[in-house]
């Protein structure tokens, strides 16, 4: 999404007078049309104590987090830290999450993808990609926490074209946004871009039981810049599609150099064939990963021309229609998967690029729907309609998917059903289950890329705004507006009852080797200069509440919150040791501090836990290291 | 006086008809069920515990609601006022109570077989003693728990006795204590004994 911002921001500025921009405080045409009789307020009102119908998972962009909101209230419910530390939950302070984050203190979260079973959400996991450091994370929807971060993925650079989950969560599919000399770490002059650089498509394998991710295989590509994608479903199950925005293979001034061609190539990938090819030993190991050269393994990769600088490419619920939005072309191009299969079978190719067949454009295009200016992404309602975000026009366009009548085909303007203004330039949009076989088709959330003047001023950094649109009727209706933390790129909406979140970690499920549950099992053990503490936290005590160490000691505390009561969370903060760990009921966490400062350091519970919460504290003493003089005594 | 005693002795000697014997069998069944059913429930509701905390008292065990978790929670809360931890191990009566009930059950069966009014009266009297003792013991337990509070506890409160039947407010909690299915079975047992005696009140010795 980021790069489209750069490109189209320029265009947007030029087109400002024509777009849906309004001075602060003035209502837009779209708003005055729909905000009547207070009905939208009634539709989005969720009374205190009542619960929302859907979860909305927003990506947090460079904040590195994922935000959870409810629909229709749009209320922010929770923040799930993924690629950046989050003191509120102690994420990034305890040993386990520190290890997961590795040496990185941030990530650029783009496209959350929910796990699926038979092409519909199963409510188990949410996968999110990190564009900046080539990682994919898995969040469990049982405890709403990040459980695994995979990466940096070898041979992949700029993990933007992710996280696209296959119909039964066999894979999370990834395409690299940038191309670099491979293997990573090798130097080559960017002048030799075409010769020395390569892109990569990756299949991240997901263990069906645990959800554990591993790199399954990769497909080497020319140095295009891969953009967004989607996985197939139904007839196109086993396939995946990505657009690219630099088929020109330019390496500088992309704004101009990569926008010269009338068409760019989309990747049409048979991931089942890729999987089989690796099993048959047709891949070469590169940086520890089996990599397929598509020129040598036919049937894995095809190129399909799509109009100029495309962005999103989305498969409809039937799995037959594939809609691509061309940022610089005012149409959504609809391709027919059946025709794609026929073209492949008949070898109806217009050319070959580096050994990869290029499917004949005219043979597979069903039609170019004139949606409007700057189409980016398309989502579906399951009733045969598609919704495309138009960045430049600041509009959501609703249009009818094929099959079209002869009359409609003759003039595709006739399939445009409705348009609604959003304020200001829209990026992604999401419909409940909009990328599954069975979308919910009630609400659409339009995420705005630039937001202006629709809120109390908070200084130059304007909050991101998202608008909730009712798509149940003939006409779309604007219901509500919410502001989120920076910077949402995409979201997923899932029915609340598909998710089964736990309230406490059951004691029986705690497998931490150093967990203790009774005061009698706690204690401090010294081994050389290593001091290991087994501690429990219970209302309103730490046991033990005194830890004695010496300068230079390496202190490890395994702390178990022995509570089994909802929301009975304890935290441990140690004064001037930059240490803050939050422990949920039934959870055990391990923290490590090296005692560099001498003195006495109070520690305390950071999470208000009872009337005696303030009294929940203790002392960590650090004696000066013995000198030759003191040791002699 | 003489006449009264004679009537009484005659009454005690009355044989039991079929209806009374069947009622005694039902009484034995009710008692057998009481061994396995919860006798009493103590329920605590507070603003921060809207669903409440429950404690089910069986003849042989103490079970916290919410999969046992409520017992831990009640103990965690009670430590603030210095109340002793509620633990099944401390209730000696829970080791013999099921056997006592089993014994009454056998006596009811015996009465059904021997078929004399005297057996019912013996059983009834014995059971009333037992019931009075059990309720007294229950009250004593409640009183003891509420009155032996640790003087070093974080919160000092007036010693109190949790209510045995009905509701009362203790600090921010509303405590409710009511008999449960097992407790009702004990009442059913007594009722059936009366009914059995009533049905055979005019049988000729
Ligand atoms: Cu605490």
UniProtKB/TrEMBL annotation, chain A:
Keyword Signal among UniProt keywords: yes
Q: Where does this one sit in the cell?
A: Cell envelope
Q: Which GO terms describe its cellular component?
A: cell envelope
Keywords, comma-separated and alphabetical: Copper, Metal-binding, Signal
Molecular function, one GO term: metal ion binding
Q: Which Pfam families has this protein been placed in?
A: Cupredoxin_1 (PF13473), nos_propeller (PF18764)
Per the record, the major location class is other
Q: Which NCBIfam families match?
A: nitrous_NosZ_Gp (TIGR04246)
- Quote the protein name from its UniProt record: Nitrous-oxide reductase
Biological source species: Nibricoccus aquaticus
From TrEMBL, chain B:
Q: From which domain of life does this come?
A: Bacteria
The reply on keyword Transmembrane is yes
* The entry's keywords: Membrane, Transmembrane, Transmembrane helix
Transmembrane stretches in the record are 21-40, 96-113, 120-140, 182-199
What is the name attached to this protein's record? Copper chaperone NosL
Source organism (scientific name): Nibricoccus aquaticus
């Amino acid at each position: 999404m980021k790069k489209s911002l750069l490109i189209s921001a320029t265009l947007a500025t030029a087109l400002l007078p024509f777009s849906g921009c309004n001075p602060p405080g003035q209502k837009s045409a779209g708003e005055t049309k729909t905000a009547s009789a207070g009905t939208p307020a009634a539709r989005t009102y969720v009374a205190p104590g009542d619960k929302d119908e859907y979860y909305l998972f927003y990506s947090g962009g460079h904040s590195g987090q994922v935000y959870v909101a409810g629909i229709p209230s749009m209320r922010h419910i929770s923040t799930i830290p993924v690629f950046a530390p989050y003191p509120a939950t102690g994420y990034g302070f305890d040993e386990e999450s520190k290890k997961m984050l590795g040496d990185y203190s941030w990530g650029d979260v783009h496209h959350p993808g929910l796990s699926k079973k038979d092409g519909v959400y199963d409510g188990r996991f949410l996968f999110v990609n990190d564009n900046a450091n080539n990682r994919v994370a898995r969040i469990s929807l049982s405890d709403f926490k990040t459980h695994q971060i995979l990466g940096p993925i070898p041979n992949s650079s700029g993990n933007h074209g992710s996280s696209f989950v296959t119909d039964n969560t066999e894979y999370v599919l990834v395409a690299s946004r940038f191309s670099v000399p491979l293997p990573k770490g090798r130097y080559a002059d960017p002048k030799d871009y075409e010769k020395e650089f390569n892109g990569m498509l990756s299949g991240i394998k997901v263990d069906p039981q645990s959800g554990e991710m591993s790199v399954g295989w990769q497909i080497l590509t020319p140095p295009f810049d891969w953009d967004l994608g989607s996985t197939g479903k139904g007839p196109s199950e086993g396939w995946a599609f990505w657009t690219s925005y630099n088929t020109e293979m330019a390496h500088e001034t992309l704004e101009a150099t990569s926008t010269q061609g009338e068409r760019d190539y989309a990747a049409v990938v048979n991931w089942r064939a890729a999987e089989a090819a690796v099993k048959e030993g047709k891949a070469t190991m590169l940086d520890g990963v089996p990599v397929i050269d598509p020129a040598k393994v036919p049937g894995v990769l095809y190129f399909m021309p799509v109009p100029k600088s495309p962005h999103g490419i989305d498969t409809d619920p039937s799995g037959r229609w594939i809609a691509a939005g061309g940022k610089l072309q005012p149409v959504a191009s609809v391709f027919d998967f059946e025709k794609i299969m026929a073209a492949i079978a008949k070898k109806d190719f217009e050319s070959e690029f580096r050994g990869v067949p290029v499917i004949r454009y005219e043979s597979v295009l069903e039609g170019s729907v004139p949606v409007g200016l700057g189409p980016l992404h398309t989502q579906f309602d399951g009733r045969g309609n598609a919704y495309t975000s138009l960045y430049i026009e600041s509009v959501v366009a609703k249009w009818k998917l094929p099959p079209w009548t002869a009359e409609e085909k003759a003039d595709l303007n006739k399939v445009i059903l409705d348009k609604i203004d959003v304020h200001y330039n829209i990026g992604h949009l999401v419909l409940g289950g909009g990328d599954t076989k069975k979308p919910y088709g009630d609400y659409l959330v339009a995420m705005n890329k630039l937001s202006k003047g629709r809120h109390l001023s908070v200084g130059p950094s304007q909050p991101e705004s998202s608008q909730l649109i009712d798509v149940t009727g003939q006409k779309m209706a604007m219901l509500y507006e919410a502001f989120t933390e920076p910077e949402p790129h995409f979201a997923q909406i899932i029915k609340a009852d598909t998710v089964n979140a736990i309230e406490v970690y059951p004691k029986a499920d705690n497998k931490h080797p150093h967990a203790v549950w009774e005061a009698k099992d706690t204690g401090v053990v010294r081994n050389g200069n290593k001091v290991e503490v087994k501690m429990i936290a219970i209302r309103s005590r730490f046991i033990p509440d005194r830890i004695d160490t010496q300068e230079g000691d390496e202190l490890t505390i395994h702390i178990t919150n022995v509570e089994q009561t909802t929301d009975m969370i304890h935290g441990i903060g140690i004064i001037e040791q930059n240490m803050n760990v939050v422990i949920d009921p039934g959870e055990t966490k391990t923290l490590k501090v090296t005692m560099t400062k001498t003195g006495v350091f109070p520690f305390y519970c950071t999470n208000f836990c009872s009337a005696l919460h303030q009294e929940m504290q203790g002392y960590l003493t650090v004696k000066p290291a013995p000198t030759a003089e003191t040791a002699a005594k | 006086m003489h006449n009264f005693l004679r009537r009484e002795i005659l009454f005690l000697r009355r044989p039991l008809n079929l209806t009374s014997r069947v009622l005694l069998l039902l009484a034995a069944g009710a008692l057998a069920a009481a061994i396995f059913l919860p006798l009493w429930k103590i329920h605590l509701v507070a603003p921060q515990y809207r669903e409440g905390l429950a404690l089910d008292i069986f003849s042989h065990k103490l079970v916290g609601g919410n999969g046992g978790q409520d017992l831990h929670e009640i103990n965690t809360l009670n430590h603030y006022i210095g109340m002793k931890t509620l633990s099944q191990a401390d209730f000696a009566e829970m080791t013999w109570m099921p056997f006592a009930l089993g014994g009454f059950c056998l006596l009811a069966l015996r009465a059904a077989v021997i078929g004399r009014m005297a057996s019912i009266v013996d059983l009834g009297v014995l059971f009333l003693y037992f019931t009075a003792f059990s309720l007294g013991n229950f009250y004593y337990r409640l009183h003891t728990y509420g009155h032996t509070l640790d003087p070093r506890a974080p919160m000092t409160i007036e010693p109190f006795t949790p209510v045995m039947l009905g509701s009362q407010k203790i600090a921010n909690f509303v405590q409710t204590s009511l008999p449960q299915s097992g407790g009702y079975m004990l009442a059913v047992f007594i009722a059936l004994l009366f009914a059995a005696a009533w049905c055979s009140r005019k049988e000729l010795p």
